[in-house]
Specification:
It is a single chain. With 423 residues, the chain is of the alpha/beta class. It has helices spanning 15-22, 75-87, 107-120, 132-140, 147-150, 153-175, 182-196, 203-212, 246-251, 283-292, 311-321, 360-365, 391-404; strands at residues 2-7, 28-31, 40-44, 47-51, 64-67, 72-73, 96-99, 103-104, 200-201, 217-220, 260-266, 269-271, 305-307, 309-310, 325-329, 339-348, 351-353, 367-374, 407-412, 420-422. Strands 9-7-5-2-10-1-11-15-19-20 form a ten-stranded mixed β-sheet, sandwiched between helices. Strands 14, 16, 17 and 18 form a four-stranded mixed β-sheet that branches. The two termini are 19 Å apart. The protein contains 13 helices and 20 strands.
Length: 423
């Protein structure tokens, strides 16, 4: 089975844990988009692993993990992540591969990201300031440098000099910022290239050979559908296609080779950074859920905004991704609430809306229409079978599945592997 795991909300849905669990039966685990602006957290026997670029499957022995061409790679961050994992006893050698077509993040990308966000002030998008957007912009503008480019010493020097001349002029004339010296950047990235060249591969060849041999491939998405560059709450989005459709472009595996698509949703809704959020909690409930759910970004540490489950948003995501099943995470965070709510529609200018709107201005002005249900004032974190869940929790989950038109396959009631219910 070739399976895609995709975030069906604004990211941070707990995909890392779901991927880690399903990786046990996979042969290859592949990251297909994003960069080190994402963080997947996996807890194994109370030890926490936070992965930013390397697929979560690296925590399983005898699995091949691949960073696809759709990912933008910061080599400094990647090398640090490899070293951190090795220090924790995780084996990394031939089990990690990186597409030689993946674009590389440079210091000028990070600087431009920061300068642009600072200039926007209150109107900033709320990026992670890791240089992700500027790197993708260079990719589309056809002035980016890929892994294969920095491994070609002669070509790299020529291309880098041309690009730096342009970037330094922009930094100087637009932002009054001192640019970068060619030798400093060239020497640093040549050293990076030597450290990661052993992992370089033709990703599409490796994966399509695996398909021919009937290997199980798990495709790992970063961020979430509502952060997708085309289908998210634009412009408060990431710079890549986080939806299931991004797999083919980001790995070179044809859509007709995909067997299953699983969407991951929280039992409530969260988002990091700026942008519309129709079901956002009041301050008091926000604080309770943030603390109980440990809702702080794995990459930046920023507190996540929290709100009730938004079925309008999630159904939109289910349609776009063609979800076969959903995995619901963090059900235990809602334990103890007297009532729980699900947003089933929006109201705008007196009109009822059941489809997710494209315009940010509309999203900022809509009012959520809720269904309210009795909560379950019981601890679910030790439950291992679906039938053992409180009846009110089962009804809540079944209503979510009904609204999305999708069956639930997994319910997570805690961060550890064992705190997982297979439905």
């Amino acid at each position: 089975m070739n399976t895609i795991i995709v975030g069906a909300q604004w990211g941070d849905e707990g995909k890392g844990k779901i991927i880690d669990i399903l990786a046990e039966k996979a042969d290859y685990i592949v990251r297909y988009q994003g960069g080190n602006n994402a963080g997947h957290t996996v807890v194994i026997e109370e030890e926490k692993f936070i992965l930013h670029l390397i697929p979560s499957g690296i925590l399983h022995p005898d699995k091949v993990c691949i960073i696809g061409n759709g990912v933008v790679v910061d080599p400094q961050a990647l090398i640090r992540e490899i070293e951190d994992l090795k220090n924790k006893g995780i084996k990394i050698n031939k089990n990690l591969l990186i597409s030689n077509r993946a674009h590389i993040i440079f210091p000028y990308h990070r600087v431009l990201d920061n300068l642009r966000e600072d200039r926007k002030g209150r109107k900033s998008i709320g990026t992670t300031r890791r240089g992700i957007g500027p790197c993708y912009a260079d990719k589309v503008a056809r002035i980016g440098l890929r892994l294969c480019d920095i491994l070609d010493e002669q070509n790299f020097a020529k291309r880098l000099e041309e690009i730096l001349n342009e970037k330094n002029e922009i930094l100087d004339k637009v932002y009054n910022f001192k640019g970068f010296k060619f030798k400093d950047v060239y020497d640093t990235y040549s050293e990076y290239a030597q450290k990661i060249k052993e992992y370089a591969c033709d990703c599409h060849y490796v994966l399509n050979e695996a398909v021919k041999k009937d290997k199980n491939i798990l495709f790992e998405g970063a961020q979430g559908t509502l952060l997708d560059i085309d289908y998210g709450t634009y412009p408060y989005v990431t710079s890549s296609n986080a939806i299931a459709g991004g797999v083919s472009a980001g790995t070179g595996v044809s859509p007709n080779r995909i067997d299953k698509i699983i969407g991951v949703v929280k039992a409530y809704t969260t988002r990091v950074g700026e942008g519309p959020f129709p079901t956002e909690f009041s301050t008091e409930l926000m604080t309770i859920i943030q603390e109980k759910g440990e809702e702080f970004g794995a990459t930046t540490g920023r507190p996540r905004r929290c709100g009730w489950f938004d079925s309008v948003l999630a159904k939109y995501s289910a349609i776009i991704n063609g979800l076969d099943k959903i995995a619901v995470t963090k059900l235990d965070v809602l334990d103890g609430l007297k009532t729980v709510k699900i947003c089933t529609a929006y109201r705008y200018n007196g009109e009822l809306i059941k489809d997710f709107p494209a315009g940010t201005e509309i999203l900022n002005k809509i009012e959520p229409v809720y269904e309210e249900y009795p909560g379950w004032e019981e601890d679910t974190s030790r439950i291992s079978e679906y039938k053992q869940l409180p009846l009110n929790a089962q009804r809540y989950l079944e209503r979510i599945a009904e609204l999305l038109g999708t069956k639930i396959s997994i319910v997570s009631v805690g961060s550890e592997r064992k705190q997982t219910i297979f439905v």
